[in-house]
Write a structure and sequence with these properties.
The protein is an alpha+beta fold and about 325 residues long. Helix content is about 35%, strand content about 20%. The chain contains 9 helices and 14 strands. The protein has an 8-stranded mixed β-sheet. The chain has a two-stranded antiparallel ribbon with strand order 1-2. Mean pLDDT is about 85; it is low at about 1-10 and about 35-65.
Length: about 325
């Protein structure tokens, strides 16, 4: 081996420094590109704002729906002693502030242990609940809904488990056959149940297992109203009445059913019975008494109210 060759092997000639720097830059560049290729593209802050603005400016009916709308969470109940809460509810009600009145009465009801005073609070709270539910007021149990192409009141009622009448009335829909895409509705998303007491002749409605309203009723003479668990299985406005196999049409003097009829069907282990239901009456003097043939009687305006609230399938429990 030549001495020159040996020297080159033992002491390699130094390359210029800028070549090494260039190699480092190239390696770093291609490494960064590969990392970015492996990660999904994420918008920067300005891109995110632009995307939000774009969705907000879209027509309501064309916005993508990512999840079901949710009801607003209930506000914390007010605090105070019992008398203060009742007074606060009364003043809020007088001022037309229904949500505030409701919150005060609910808080009072939870504190009260006196049966007669509880009834007084319930008498105040019931009409507030009805007003909130049956008109376009905001409340935690209602969800906002923007009508989409192909929607109908029937479909929305089935989807949310409410009556068509409630959607129409609570949103003041002038023509239920003509709702259009982009219309904004508030739909109650809640479950009702009914408990009837034969001994007290009253009917208690609960919404989401909380007190909603109490009604005075008439029940069956000699205890004929059946006890057990039932569900509402048929609803009729201006009902005809069948008496001893004879049809008595609505409006005829002998028809005792009033303006609404809701038949009940036995559920669970309750013996099967037929012909019983909740209906109106033309004789308000029978309310609060056990004089019917077994059905549950209500004043016509009140059974009409209940008819709007309760969908088919609503559970009904009848106790002694």
């Amino acid at each position: 081996m030549k001495v020159k060759d040996f020297d080159e092997l033992a002491y390699p000639r130094r390359r210029p420094w800028w070549i090494l720097l260039l190699l480092v830059v190239v390696v770093a560049f291609f490494g960064l590109r590969r990392k970015n290729a492996d990660e999904p593209n994420q918008p920067g802050p300005r891109e995110e704002i632009a995307d939000v603005e774009a969705v907000a400016n879209e027509p309501a009916a064309e916005r993508p729906v990512h999840s079901e709308p949710k009801a607003a969470p209930p506000a914390p109940l007010p605090t105070g002693d019992l008398n203060e809460l009742i007074a606060r509810g009364d003043s809020s009600l007088a001022a037309g502030e229904l949500s505030e009145a409701r919150a005060a009465y609910v808080a009072a009801l939870r504190r009260c242990r006196n049966a007669s005073l509880r009834r007084e609070i319930e008498d105040r709270l019931g009409p507030v609940h009805v007003d909130l539910v049956m008109n376009p007021h905001m409340m935690p149990e209602k969800v906002p809904y923007v009508v989409r192409p192909g929607d109908s009141v029937d479909r929305l009622a089935k989807k949310y488990g409410v009556t068509k009448d409630l959607i129409i009335q609570s949103n003041r829909i002038a023509n239920p056959n003509l709702i259009k895409a982009g219309d904004q509705l508030r739909i109650l998303k809640a479950k009702f149940n009914v408990t009837v007491s034969k001994s007290r002749n009253d009917l208690r409605v609960e919404m989401n297992e909380r007190f909603f309203k109490r009604y005075r009723i008439g029940t069956g003479e000699f205890g004929k109203t059946p006890v057990g668990t039932f569900v509402i299985d048929l609803k009729q406005t201006n009902p005809d009445w069948w008496a001893k196999g004879k049809r008595v049409r609505f409006g005829e003097k002998e028809n005792i059913l009033g303006t609404r009829w809701m038949s009940i069907k036995a559920s669970g282990e309750t013996p099967k019975v037929s012909g019983y239901g909740i209906h109106g009456t033309w004789d308000d003097s029978t309310i609060g008494k056990a004089l019917s043939a077994g059905c549950i009687r209500m004043r016509n305006p009140e059974v009409e109210e209940l008819y709007v609230l309760l969908p088919i399938g609503t559970p009904v429990t009848i106790n002694e």
